[in-house]
Specification:
The chain is an alpha/beta fold. The protein is about 35% helix and about 15% strand. α3 (about 85-95) runs parallel beside α4. The chain binds (4S)-2,6-dioxohexahydropyrimidine-4-carboxylic acid (DOR) and zinc ion. Zinc ion binds near residues 15, 249 and 251.
Length: about 350
């Protein structure tokens, strides 16, 4: 008989955008009701580049979720051309931030302050390697001459492979992988390299962007690729390989900012993230590997304890709302208007 319910250790989200202000208030509870911990991206305006800013942001996140959720935000440092190795090391030693985030300048939302020349980052990467602080990478080149669908694969060749060689002990996470090249790079790389995988890159290919018309809510960066790539990423996630772990990249933008002549990149998948992942693992006959992907591989990579609490999903239909309130506006969730067949039943 098919599995009707599954209980796993409570999962963590190793890559999420919680924003600030009224959007933070609206979206943080969705993450906190499922995940025990989440790595929070630092691409606010202005970006989180100092220990003091990270501490203040952490306090705002904690204030935005219910204490009973037991949720712990894990903070990150946004790298710029001016990043100071001493400030970064201090924040890591004081356990304020868990990792640094590398955005190539202008690769995506709020990345204008990102790194323009990796050579300027050598002292920072050396220090991170020495103290064992992970580097989280948005892996896309920004050269407008490179086709947008090739930017991840080219980044791996031009930037990531040399970096992994030049800093042989640096712990690196290639975030939100979307291609066969990325899945295979991570699988075959030296030790100390991992990848996060989002629900959308397991569930949609690039056709979703153009299904019957232009679909702004299917647009995120890195953009969804061809079906061949989706299948490779899906095989990676469900393989049980400890190098792959859950990172939603949930990235809310108000409806007006998505449905615009120049719509923002980002898919808001937090409200039904575990339902999305369960759908994938169930369809691929891999429900027995969901716990490793969602709750074990990430903490092992980061050297953190496994969560002792649990989360239960049941095979029950759940209708996804067409939009959710976010302060004075609304956000459209991933799967809006669809019915999923797994439902979060309990967290305890
Ligand atoms: O689609 C995306 N949205 N990709 C990113 O890398 C950033 C994110 C955001 O902050 O909106
Ligand atoms: Zn992201």
């Amino acid at each position: 008989m098919e599995t009707q319910s599954i209980t796993i250790r409570r999962p963590d989200d190793w890559h999420v955008h919680l924003r600030d202000g009224e959007m933070l208030q609206a979206v943080a509870p969705y993450t906190a009701r499922q995940f025990a911990r989440a790595i929070v991206m630092p691409n606010l305006t202005p970006p989180v580049t100092s220990v003091a800013a990270a501490l203040a942001y952490r306090d705002r996140i904690v204030a935005a979720v219910e204490e009973a959720s037991g949720f712990t935000p894990l903070m990150t440092c946004y790298l710029t051309d001016a990043s100071d190795p001493d400030e970064i090391a201090r924040g890591f030693e004081e356990r304020v931030w868990i990792a640094c985030k590398l955005y190539p300048a202008n690769a995506t939302t709020n990345s204008a302050f990102g790194v323009t020349d990796l050579r300027k980052l050598q002292p920072v990467l050396e220090r991170m390697q020495r103290i064992g602080m992970p580097l989280l990478v948005h892996g896309e080149v920004t050269d407008p001459a490179i086709d947008v669908f090739d930017r991840e694969a080219v980044f791996i060749q031009q930037v990531l492979e040399p970096m992994a060689r030049d800093f042989p002990e640096l712990r690196i996470v290639l975030e939100h992988i979307t291609t066969e090249e990325a899945a295979h790079f991570v699988r075959d790389a030296r030790t100390g390299i991992g990848a996060t995988i989002t629900p959308q890159h397991l569930l949609i290919n690039r056709n979703a962007l153009f299904a019957g018309g232009l679909r702004p809510h299917a647009y995120c960066l890195p953009v969804a690729k061809r079906e061949r790539h989706r299948l490779a990423v899906r095989a990676a996630a469900t393989s049980g390989n400890p190098r792959y772990f859950l990172g939603t990249d949930s990235a809310p933008h108000v409806r007006e900012a998505k449905e615009a002549s120049c719509g923002c990149a980002g898919i808001f998948n937090a409200p039904y993230a575990m339902e999305s992942y369960a759908t994938v693992f169930d369809a691929d006959g891999a429900l027995d590997r969901l716990e490793a992907f969602a709750s074990v591989n990430g903490p092992r990579f980061y050297g953190l304890p496994l969560n002792e609490s649990s989360l239960t999903l049941e095979r029950t239909d759940v209708e996804i709302p067409v939009s959710l309130a976010a302060g004075s506006s609304a956000v459209v969730p991933f799967h809006a208007g669809e019915t999923l067949h797994w439902k979060l039943a309990a967290v305890g």
